[in-house]
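RETRY 2/3 - previous attempt timed out on the joint model. Re-submitting the same 729-residue input unchanged.
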Amino acid sequence: MEKRVVFRSAWLPWVLMAPQLAVIGVFFFWPAAQALLQSLQRADAFGMSVDWVGLENFRNLWKDETYLASFYTTAIFSISVAVAGISISLILAVFADRIVKGALAYKTLLIWPYAVAPAVAGVLWLFMFAPSVGVVAYALDVMGFKWNHLLNGTHAMTLVVMAAVWKQISYNFLFFLAGLQSIPKSLLEAAAIDGARPWRRFWTIVFPLLSPTTFFLLVINIVYAFFDTFAIIDAATSGGPGKDTAILVYKVYYDGFKAMDQGGSAAQSVVLMVIVVALTVVQFRFVEKKVNY
Amino acid sequence: MNKISFTAVALATALVMPAQAQTEIQWWHSMTAVNGEWVNDLAKDFNASQTKYKIVPVYKGQYPESMTAAVAAFRAGNAPHILQVFEVGTATMMASKGAIVPVAQIMKDAGFKFDPGAYISAVAGYYTAPNGQMLSFPFNSSTTVFYYNKDAFKAAGLDPEKAPSSWPEVALAAAKLKANGHKCPLTIGWQGWTQLESFSAWHNVEFATKSNGLAGLDARMKVNSPLHVRHIDNLANMSKHGLFVYKGRNNLAEPTFVSGECAMITTSSGFYGNVKKNAKFAFGLAPLPYYPDVPGAPQNTVIGGASLWVMAGKKPEEYKGVAAFFNYVSSPEVQSASHKRTGYLPVTTAAFQLTEKSGFYKENPGTDVAPNQMIRKVTDKSRGIRLGNYVQIRTIEDEELEQVWGGKKSAQEALDSIVKRGNELLERFEKDNKKG
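RETRY 2/3 succeeded.
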């Protein structure tokens, strides 16, 4: 039998929702509408003169080969960040869940990186891997591996992926840990009695039961990689070498805030918005079918 | 009265003393470390020299950041009075007519004598509108010079008193340094500025048409000439053999020279203060290397650094304070002291002569390199480079050159690409600003 609470008042639900709607309106819909508006304009840096140019900003983007190339860069970056971020934090969460002694200390340490600002995370990793002065770069050099993210695009991409993943692990970890702790112990114990080893118990019981969490994190991580990583890129590589780590959102930031091309930057953010909406729809339509709630 | 209570009373008096009705003038700048101290001292000395105005210097991040901050502040109606803008932002500021007040007008309104002719022509010309009005106040102008580590030269069996003057000599010196175990013989700061922009003026070849953009918005890039290709190809070869080591964009290479890791560097003359204070070795300054077989080389180098812009929409009284401050900073004595301290150029001829007379150049060999590279008769190809969307063009230069150093593109491919991508931006800038 289904239990359902019915609000008879016409206005009470709206009043209760009002604060949340106001927050979404001010912090999401308003800026999004602004971006849409600006993407159809060209203005000088100080906003003294504004011209309506229709779709010219978008046409300029399609003409720019390097912009099209950055879709590919973004795909590699986002997939790497999401896959690495989710799998590493899942492993850590599984271990942290099994630990008996000092669990709190491990958990606290794992949550710390989330408190670090993205730009600082970028600089931290940059220091460790700086050719000729970085600790890690030096160690690699001793082992005969020439690390140089200033000129090697693969190295640079690895660096920013590591920094972005490191920053996001805590968030993923928290959700996985909560997910693991909500799995009924009786199921695991029953399986253990039936002779299933930990590895098997993980794949047949834990992983499927975690799938809502994993799916949620997949969406969140993709959005994170698309939108929240420009500070890491800016601090660590500035998009270089060449344009090898210039992901879409970095160019939005660069064109808008450094080069002061507001129209072009707004057009790019509209493109980005469309991509993320499309990706999320795809995820909900196709990936979600495999999720057991 | 014991000592403590005396101090307390003195302190109280100081606090109670009515803060005179001083006009505060906000000055946003991007100077850090030794140059930041210099800016603060200038403000302090000016504030002490009179009582009507108070200059408040505020560090607002690196050049692009402070410019962005000022744009946002201007839109919100609380821009600073004075904004330090790097040379790359000059064309953008010039195009924003309603946002700024020309310096020449500020000085005239305040009743100060202001003679643009007092400034070194390569400097004044850069900040002057085509109609002859000086728009911004030349402040920290620098140019590109060559620094080398004399101790490293000595250790490698090179003559420490004789800097390599041509690129072939640089390559030879680098090879000797490398043979002596030096891991980074040569590095480069501000690669686009030193190796393409200043390089062009130094060899009297065009960087862009229309006098490198000074003569009109329809300028187009010319950096894929045979000479440019030859030079970048030469550097690419040096990079391949470990003679030139790339250390990053902007001035990221500078610390590697100060630390002694890299033995030679081409970068801004404004780097001098840092080297002088922090380098633990003997160092030398020399003019930018050139190719001796190019007719007309060496010509002169182009300016970098920044100028001070006055933002629109302030009170007349405040503008008087700005003018008084500019008048103070442009006096030959202050100019000369600043030049000696920072390595930035003396922007007036009088300041240069005063510095020369003081014997500073004789005592500090090499400090006259930068002014001497600038105080020359300029040509249309060497007067300066002022392009629209310059910030992005600089980044394009970085991106393409990195691909050459990384071996992904040939010099010709990269320079062709700079021209193509740069021209698209120039066309867009021309279009945006014609309408207005």
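The interface with chain B takes residues 42, 44-49, 51, 60, 63-64, 66, 132, 150-153, 238-243, 254-255, 257-261 of chain A (CB under 8 Å). Closing ticket.
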